[in-house]
Write a structure and sequence with these properties.
CATH superfamily of the largest domain: Glutamyl-tRNA reductase, N-terminal domain
Mean pLDDT: 88
Number of domains: 3
Helix content: 55-70%
Shape: elongated
Number of helices: 15
CATH architecture of the largest domain: 2-Layer Sandwich
Strand order of the largest sheet: 7-6-5-8-9-10
Strand content: 5-15%
CATH topology of the largest domain: Beta Polymerase, domain 2
Distance between the termini: 13 Å
Number of strands: 10
Largest sheet: 6 strands, parallel
Order of helices and strands: EHHEEHEHHHHEHEHEHEHEEHHHH
């Protein structure tokens, strides 16, 4: 199996190098068509994201696939590839299969367990299919990588817990309210982290967004992005009581929301719970607010602790995910080896059968006239000898399927028995 992969990722290169080696989505199909048009390259797959570019290729036996891929990349990027050599990794055979399975399972992602990579891998696979670049073993491996990625998400908690501050806020809100359906979110300060948290809340079912910022135009701009409403900063307490969830990051020098403010808000809300996400430094919400019944305050340190705990949980789940990947790699390599082995077994049987028949024919004159019973005995005797000769090499080839040295052993058997490629 002449399977190779060359890649560059966040683990091996800074962003400016990854950008140089990136293959844009708009040019991906054409790149794949060019790759498999090269002599001896049967199949190709390219996965190119902001954090990685991986190119896998299946070549005919005896083809120097690495040399072909080097020339392709140098021509595509119009560069001397040696300048980037220190950032590239080259994999072959089983290691390619393992790498693709780990990538699809988000075990090689910058954020362990992030869900986007599985969708990106699926898109890369579909583009390769459309380009006619997958039609054999690499297609089977790619399909299995997607299946492994789904199995890891289904059977482990690798992606179950939040590992970003903004999403941790959403996770905590769900614990407090049970559901985010119909909840109102009030954003104080239109910073990037507040916007990101709000996006997660809206995707989780929050109903409406109110935005207050010292610069009203920025508040209006952010509110429009969520189809919400901007609130003049000096009137925020007139509307703050409508909010179930308050995300605050104003940069105010002192507490913007005090215990007294919160008490009045709760009275207006008839004691319905309020959740404050205070991601400002210095803090916007007085910690004493947390002492009130039905008020829940989490500052940036609280959220970071949640994120740290969740990261540890993902790392524990990753151990089981790695075991799943190894199981699937073993299974896939055995299956591919058995498929690859079938032509050799057939060729061995045909080779020895031709020899058997030729020898019978050569000795036919010496055997004289044989009865039907005698001819059947000769056939049975010679076939039995042939089967016994073949039994051990075929058994050894089958039992070693999937092992790294299996290919070399099969080639040795072919040479011993004179089976041509």
């Amino acid at each position: 199996m002449n399977l190779i992969l060359v890649g560059i990722s966040h683990r091996t290169a800074p962003v400016e190098v990854r950008e140089r080696m990136n293959i844009s989505e708009s040019r991906l199909r054409a790149a794949l068509e060019d790759l498999v048009a090269a002599r001896g390259i049967r199949e190709g797959l390219i996965l190119s994201t902001c954090n990685r570019t991986d190119l896998a290729a299946m070549a005919d036996e005896g083809v120097e696939a690495e040399a072909w891929v080097r020339r392709f990349l140098a021509a595509y990027h119009r560069c001397d590839l040696s300048a980037y050599e220190q950032h590239l990794y080259w994999l072959r055979g089983r290691e390619v299969v393992r790498h693709l399975f780990r990538v699809a399972s988000s075990l090689d992602s910058m954020i362990l367990g992030e869900p986007q990579i599985l969708g990106q891998f699926k898109q890369a696979y579909q583009t390769a299919i459309e380009a006619g670049a997958l039609n054999g073993v690499l297609q089977e491996i790619s399909e299995q990588a997607l299946a492994v990625g789904r199995r890891v998400r289904r059977e482990t908690g690798l992606g179950a817990s939040a590992v970003s501050v903004s999403y941790a806020a959403v996770e905590l809100a769900r614990k407090i309210f049970g559901s985010l359906e119909g909840k109102t979110v009030f954003i104080l300060g239109a910073g990037k982290m507040s916007e990101l948290a709000a996006r997660h809340l809206v995707s989780g079912g929050a109903r409406s967004i109110l935005v207050a910022n010292r610069t009203y135009d920025r508040a209006a701009e952010l509110a429009a992005a969520f189809k919400g409403a901007a609130v003049p900063f000096d009137t925020l307490f007139d509307r703050l009581g409508q909010a179930d969830i308050v995300i605050s990051s104003t940069g105010s020098p002192g507490y913007l929301i005090t215990r007294e403010h919160a008490e009045r808000l709760l009275i207006g809300r008839k004691q319905r719970p309020m959740f404050f996400v205070d991601i400002a430094v210095p803090r916007d919400v007085d910690p004493a607010v947390n002492e009130l019944d039905n008020c829940f305050v989490y500052d940036i340190d609280d959220l970071e602790q949640v994120v740290a705990a969740n990261r540890k949980q993902r790392e524990r789940e990753a151990v089981w995910a790695e075991q799943i990947v190894e199981q699937e790699v073993d299974r896939t390599m055995r299956r591919l080896a058995h498929k690859e082995l079938a032509p050799t077994i057939v060729a061995l049987e045909q080779r020895l059968e031709r020899i058997r028949k030729a020898e019978i024919e050569r000795f036919r004159g010496r055997l004289g006239d044989l009865s039907d019973q005698q001819r059947e005995a000769v056939e049975a005797l010679t076939r039995g000898m042939l089967n016994k000769i073949l039994h051990e090499p075929i058994t050894q080839m089958k039992s070693g399927a999937g092992n790294p040295e299996h290919g070399a052993f099969v080639q040795l058997v072919r040479r011993i028995f004179g089976v041509n490629d």
